[in-house]
């Protein structure tokens, strides 16, 4: 069985109480995770302290990280503030690029900031050029960074890409940046296995289907068997 990643991205969802309820149900019903599965949950910032103290059976990540170091940057969370709290930081999700004007340059700055805080970057891309622009960061990436390929049409639409298309894109991306590549976009328990089975895909990124604990467990179960 190959090593696989399952990443849950909650986006801007859940009150603190809803996160507490999710976590309780999830922990009760998840069972033991085999060591070939790396499970990463990226809740929102205000959930993080709770998750840390509940000692979750998975890695924690953030959905974003500041492009700047600690200092006079109102509203930002710097790498230094997050160091030791999370293992991963998602960077450059297409929603951040679309609604918050994140450019490839900002994405690259965020990779540098994550790195300086020993946080592993998960760079999200929807096209090849976004990876090419990261080329100069290969030394930063090569250790333990991840790429999350998410075609725009598939995000939140219920219309996932085909596993074969996603695999073909992942093959190209891995030739540019040799890191594990995840597919994201309308991944659900019913289609996850098709993506996991692809040669150039190392896992999946999951938005909507990670919000319900039982649905997410079903997805993880389908991915790992
Ligand atoms: P979705 O989101 O699973 O709801 O399509 C994926 C993502 O944007 O990470």
Highlighted features:
single chain, alpha/beta, eight-stranded parallel beta barrel, binds 2-phosphoglycolic acid
What is the topology?
Blueprint: E1 4-9, H1 16-30, E2 37-42, H2 48-53, E3 59-62, H3 79-82, E4 88-91, H4 94-99, H5 104-116, E5 120-125, H6 128-132, H7 138-142, E6 146-149, H8 163-176, E7 181-184, H9 192-196, E8 203-206, H10 213-224
Parallel strand pairs: 1-2, 1-8, 2-3, 3-4, 4-5, 5-6, 6-7, 7-8
This protein binds 2-phosphoglycolic acid (PGA).
Structural write-up:
It is a single chain. With 225 residues, the chain is of the alpha/beta class. The protein is 38% helix and 17% strand. It has helices at 16-30, 48-53, 79-82, 94-99, 104-116, 128-132, 138-142, 163-176, 192-196, 213-224; strands at residues 4-9, 37-42, 59-62, 88-91, 120-125, 146-149, 181-184, 203-206. It has an eight-stranded parallel beta barrel with strand order 1-2-3-4-5-6-7-8. Strand 3, helix 3 and strand 4 (88-91) form a beta-alpha-beta unit. The longest helix has 15 residues, at 16-30. The protein is globular, with a radius of gyration of 16 Å. The termini are close together. The mean pLDDT is 94. The structure holds 2-phosphoglycolic acid (PGA). Residues 9, 150, 155-156, 184-187, 205-209 line the site of 2-phosphoglycolic acid.
């Amino acid at each position: 069985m190959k090593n696989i990643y399952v990443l849950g991205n909650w986006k801007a969802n859940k009150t603190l109480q809803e996160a507490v309820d999710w976590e309780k149900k999830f922990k009760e019903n998840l069972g033991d995770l085999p060591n070939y599965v790396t499970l990463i949950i990226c809740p929102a910032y205000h959930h993080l302290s709770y998750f840390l103290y509940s000692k979750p059976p998975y890695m924690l990540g953030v959905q974003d990280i500041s492009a700047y170091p600690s200092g006079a940057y109102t509203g930002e969370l710097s790498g230094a503030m997050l160091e030791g709290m999370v293992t991963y930081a998602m960077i450059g999700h297409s929603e951040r690029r679309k609604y918050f004007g994140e450019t490839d340059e900002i994405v690259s700055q965020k990779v540098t900031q994550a790195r300086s805080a020993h946080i592993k970057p998960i760079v999200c891309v929807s096209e090849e050029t976004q990876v090419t622009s990261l080329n100069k960061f290969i030394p930063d990436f090569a250790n333990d960074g991840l790429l999350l390929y998410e075609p725009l049409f598939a995000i939140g639409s219920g219309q996932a890409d085909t596993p074969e298309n996603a695999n073909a894109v992942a093959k190209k991306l891995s030739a540019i940046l040799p890191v594990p590549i995840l597919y994201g976009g309308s991944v659900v328990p019913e289609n996850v296995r098709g993506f996991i089975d692809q040669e150039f895909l190392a896992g999946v990124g999951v938005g909507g289907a990670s919000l319900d604990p039982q649905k997410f467990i079903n997805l993880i179960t389908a991915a790992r068997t």
